[in-house]
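A common beginner's mistake is to predict each chain separately and then try to dock the pieces by hand. The better habit, illustrated here, is to supply every component at once so that their relative placement is modeled jointly.
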Amino acid sequence: MIFKFNPTNRYMTLKDFKTTKERRDFLEKELRVRLENISKAHVDDEKTIHCENLIGSTTLPLGVAGPITVKNEELRVKSYFIPLATTEGALVASVSRGCKAINLSGGVTSFVENVGVTRGPVFETSGLRESIELKKWLDDNFNLLKVEAEKTSSHLKLKKIGTRIAGTYVYIRFYFDTDQAMGMNMVTIATDSINRLIESKTKIKCLSVSGNFCVDKKPAWLNFLSGRGKKVWADIILKKEIVKEVLKTTPEKFFDIWLAKCMVGSAIAGSLGFNAHFANIVAAFFAATGQDLAHVVEGSMGITTSKVLKNGDLYVSIYIPAVMIGTVGGGTKLKTKQEALSIIGAKNSLELVEVLGGAVLAGEISLLASLAEGTLACAHKKLGR
Amino acid sequence: MIFKFNPTNRYMTLKDFKTTKERRDFLEKELRVRLENISKAHVDDEKTIHCENLIGSTTLPLGVAGPITVKNEELRVKSYFIPLATTEGALVASVSRGCKAINLSGGVTSFVENVGVTRGPVFETSGLRESIELKKWLDDNFNLLKVEAEKTSSHLKLKKIGTRIAGTYVYIRFYFDTDQAMGMNMVTIATDSINRLIESKTKIKCLSVSGNFCVDKKPAWLNFLSGRGKKVWADIILKKEIVKEVLKTTPEKFFDIWLAKCMVGSAIAGSLGFNAHFANIVAAFFAATGQDLAHVVEGSMGITTSKVLKNGDLYVSIYIPAVMIGTVGGGTKLKTKQEALSIIGAKNSLELVEVLGGAVLAGEISLLASLAEGTLACAHKKLGR
Amino acid sequence: MIFKFNPTNRYMTLKDFKTTKERRDFLEKELRVRLENISKAHVDDEKTIHCENLIGSTTLPLGVAGPITVKNEELRVKSYFIPLATTEGALVASVSRGCKAINLSGGVTSFVENVGVTRGPVFETSGLRESIELKKWLDDNFNLLKVEAEKTSSHLKLKKIGTRIAGTYVYIRFYFDTDQAMGMNMVTIATDSINRLIESKTKIKCLSVSGNFCVDKKPAWLNFLSGRGKKVWADIILKKEIVKEVLKTTPEKFFDIWLAKCMVGSAIAGSLGFNAHFANIVAAFFAATGQDLAHVVEGSMGITTSKVLKNGDLYVSIYIPAVMIGTVGGGTKLKTKQEALSIIGAKNSLELVEVLGGAVLAGEISLLASLAEGTLACAHKKLGR
Amino acid sequence: MIFKFNPTNRYMTLKDFKTTKERRDFLEKELRVRLENISKAHVDDEKTIHCENLIGSTTLPLGVAGPITVKNEELRVKSYFIPLATTEGALVASVSRGCKAINLSGGVTSFVENVGVTRGPVFETSGLRESIELKKWLDDNFNLLKVEAEKTSSHLKLKKIGTRIAGTYVYIRFYFDTDQAMGMNMVTIATDSINRLIESKTKIKCLSVSGNFCVDKKPAWLNFLSGRGKKVWADIILKKEIVKEVLKTTPEKFFDIWLAKCMVGSAIAGSLGFNAHFANIVAAFFAATGQDLAHVVEGSMGITTSKVLKNGDLYVSIYIPAVMIGTVGGGTKLKTKQEALSIIGAKNSLELVEVLGGAVLAGEISLLASLAEGTLACAHKKLGR
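With all components supplied together, the output reads:
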């Protein structure tokens, strides 16, 4: 069907409707469609929603994996249920199976480092000499920048800066502690404020508040190597009996699959994800808890390691260098997200990342075991007789 | 709060509840939380849902951008509204602004290439000689594999294979046409079937049905360079007057920001995304239309180009090499997703990708213009007087 | 010392000298330096040398590793001495040690695939529609292009083409068989000729005969994933006794070091070289045999694999996806290079690559073993008491 | 020809000869080859040579480009001739042409940052908790490590350390100031000494003195993003008249080629070299001045930028993040290298890198201009009638 109306008028029209219902009614009539479920699922107060041209809400099934026992850096031991929003069959069951193996082995150890949320503006100078001078000025005036940044929000602290120069371009990476929020918005505001100060003091122009040196929502080695938001590691030693009983494979087979897939396979594919499926768990966890879904990109990078210990047990670990997450702000305000967060019961964003780390490890363990099982089955059926 | 219960028992418990309500009731009582909105938002029939340990549904605000006028390869011109599920303020408005500029310039041109959905198992041989032989066998027996694969589904066709060898490891990338579905499930089943045939014929063992040579849900150069699912390109020539009126900047400033950010900035950050924010639009579009959210990872890679033409107009294009999308199967079955798909009104998955291409281009145009505007404002306030 | 002369005049001066001796005399006088060894080492007839402003020759020590026993795809078994030009102490000895371990284990198996030397020009169109049309035209007219290319040299064949589009840019990768030569020059001439034909037929302008889609002398995933020049693989099963006696370590320790360094270490460093030191052997072999030293870049990429077999023996393999090498043309014409090539005695460039593959494997085996030894020593000294 | 001798004996034989001449004689007789030029070109005293199984020397033609006028950070202005060892016709002439354009525009500005030469060992712990503890111990005991390292050489200083953790693996990157030497050897010795101290104090085992976290002689994003050895930048504003007269093109055409090739082309090829041909100049400069040729790999990475200024002039810059170079030690001791270094006349390694930066910029300018010219010619011949 080709619309006969003038599309530029149409744009004005939709924007001009005042209520969600009016927009929905218009679309239903205009396009001859029914939008009743989008309406029905709309449980939030619109004042709390930051989404223009709103017509209602979309839904995702919410399952719960776990519980998972997590020990953190301070040796606190807690059990958590893990809400996961997904339409991929077997994902919740798979994470739950991983949790079971983990719990039977005493629980996952999870560590978090608060790298800081980053914004990376680009300035333009007249050439290298000025670029080098700007870099020096920035190093010399860190405290000035810090004070300026922290005027913009009481929840934000400037942690450090990193600078790279390419000719007339100076890229500056500001790392901020954003308290309990993921914080991209406050970070952008603070960076904008810093940029103006720099411009005012140095007379060097800021080209763009983001020069892709953030690097926001793009797979990038800078995030992998230097981290962004939070880094998380988690590990576990799985008893060989548990590998056999719960995961239906052996430590040796698990290790072989891991090596062939997560290491050599990732290398030969030019991958930044040396893991089995971090993104699956990160996406489902983010969707459940109100995180920005485009940050799944950062969360897909990282490394799973594995080792058969001398006593035959299986060591497995995960490392995600760039987790962009918060317990306040953004999508976390939505009612269903608040409820999911209450299921987890993390007291702050660091604890939330600890749980995520555990959940991702559980997911890796279960999928890699499944792949090993599958091979078994496969080999058995075809070659075994 | 540290749970006193035995977590391994708990795992059994949750799984053993028979209904969504029972699970919810248990969690509410056990954790002393309220899950009423997760319940209220649950509009789907559970039989259609593939999510274990289901407790209800989570929600995301749904806005509508556009309409956008799209011309495809066959010169068909259509206008589409673009449903976007997001909690990022300004995203829908920004895409809409991009659509307006596009429409006023005659509409976006969008091209799609069906690369094929891929699965990349890994086989293990006794060494290079056998690895090379396996590669030759695969090349010689493509039709055999094709017949075997296509037995598993009438919706699936094996398009081609690519093989890479590293010592005893042989990685095989199967490219499938999956009709209107994103198709990872059917592709996995077909690959498993092919693998068994290969094992049976060659006596070489399949280590894993996925050897990260797919590359599924990980940022990877193999996907960037060879494509996965669909490739999409979109472009537009924006009249300089429209750039000024709608986008509040100039073609020259737009180009400068693009160059500093998407090109040099991405290079100096080791990014696989040479773009402004593909992932934002891809994530919101995927969440609205029921795609697998972990595939946002693939959709975040790609290149935006820009050029000031001799007559002063602005050329902008986008290229995403790996779009994993479908109009049937997976999350598209959910009621709210069906409604969103009905708003778009695409007849098939290729058309859906054409619309996505246009939406991403609109998003790039608007954000890059905003960054240029911002700089203007910034420069004006601080340096202009 | 700051020159007082006008540098722009000086440029003219040096170029205008007619003989190597005159240039040397001038520099000796002007800069008050002695260049006698550069003169003494100059053994070639200048007519065969392609180097402007020639003042003589520089030298590199030449050692000989091996012999190494190599079995190729056709099961031919031969032994080769390996000339290596290097100033890195221990490199020749290390490769020799690797050769010894290899020979005692029955010799290396080496496979070569002639991918083809590539040139990647970039064309500029008016937009996507024309870009797509150009791609189709290229696919439809491959034979036309092939005929045109092969007019330029009887030693050259066009094997295939690959095309990528980003907006107005169309990148075309031509793969050529260049017979016994590395062949970049003939490939550039052929590509230029093809480009003119394309321009003439399609009226689309070639922007540059190289659009970095070659990718010449730069580390790039395109070369890693698709190959360039020749791909080479080599492997060996080292008896555990030989690992102990010749390499002073155990298969298990060797494997552990390989995993920690070549796999996880390379991953965590964002490396395209999943190996221990390919570049060392490639550089020394290239310098000895007259290859273009800038092509060491391509040769540094690739993967070493390792495995402890069930019987306790050690499997090791190497894979280099982009070897740019020849036995005729370029630097191979120099007298000292001819002599080094005569030491190897390879009948053609494929055989030369087979030997290189073996040499690289020998180098990997020896260095990884040394690292394992070192650790032993290290651990022994410090922790052993 | 297939050797009849026992290759394992042969290995022993070659090693056991005592003199270069004896080895050469043996090979000449055994292989029926003539090695007179390898002998003739052998000008060095063997005591200064670190190359086992030495049979003589190989040669490379040495040309001289320039002079080039270089201004450094301290505003010192000097002119340098640039010795380049190469067999690629046109390279020296091309760099010379670039130098001419640079000199006529007032000389290149060249900046160097001494990042430090790096070694990256890997330690193995029992798990994450111990890994995190080791990282903290390292941070707390930097001065202890520094003192230990600096005991091993008076020419070496430990500048900083960087640590990354993946499960049981702890990668530590030590950055050393190595004075005038490239310094890999002294850095390895110092690292080995530090490693033993760490093992002794923490009882954690060093797996390998190099864990590919150095990253030595491999293309890697860690080197690109964090630098290795020296970083160098160089830039110039070329008057538009000079672009026309000397480079036979226009600033606009130059810019277009640069954008299509070094930016979009590099992006679409997954390249770590966003430049035209850094590796050519780096390889020729390294071969002339006695650097380790495998370090051409590091020197091939980096970014060329370009811009048409408002007055129509052309700005061009280069940035190489990882230059591994020295003026003493290694191959610099060879007589022909000493003579080449005397032609340059750099007082220290920083100055040598400044000259290299200028030479690379000259090479980029000339090649990019040639590509623009070529297109002109091409377009003219085929489309102009």
